[in-house]
# Entry
Amino acid sequence: SSELTQDPAVSVALGQTVRITCQGDSLRSYYASWYQQKPGQAPVLVIYGENNRPSGIPDRFSGSSSGNTSSLTITGAQAEDEADYFCNSRDSTGNPLFGGGTKLTVL
Amino acid sequence: QVQLQESGPGLVKPSQTLSLTCTVSGGSISSGHYFWSWIRQPAGKGLEWIGRIYTAGSTNYNPSLKSRITISADTSKNQFSLNLSSVTAADTAVYFCARQEASAWKNFDYWGQGTLVTVSS
# Structure
């Protein structure tokens, strides 16, 4: 199916590690990319490909993939990481596809 | 530095056509290395890809919206535009324009700030 499924909300204690997951059939063929979105702002790319970070993204952000699941891991979460996170891949025709988003709360 | 800026009416009446323009600076929309997309986000909800335009005016559209969408480009002004016809309240959303790499990764690397469009009489 052409869907990417994410947990609606996840929380993590300050300084701890959190994993945000994304499931979908397309992830068996394509890597997911991950976007961070803070309130009132446009999304920002944080992870793409197998595990690549754009310039300026802290190395506490990492990505992984297994089967139909891609994961974004934040190791040592900071207060500024509180945001919505969206995974992105493509459907069988090559059109972009977004997950429903995960709201991350840093406690 | 590439910048994208959405413009257009913030209020559209039901059944009318929503029209938005994205003005790009710092890079040419004629470049074959990128796609130029529209993406929307209803309040409190996720991102929905609407469609894109690329080399020589080629387009791809979200099948769920395809019958109502037209995306076009004006290379002389370095702008691309979205027309969404027969709008309803369900089309109320923040609309973003974004640049997508045509590389293997297909990342959305630059985004506009977004513009809120409300459909209401």
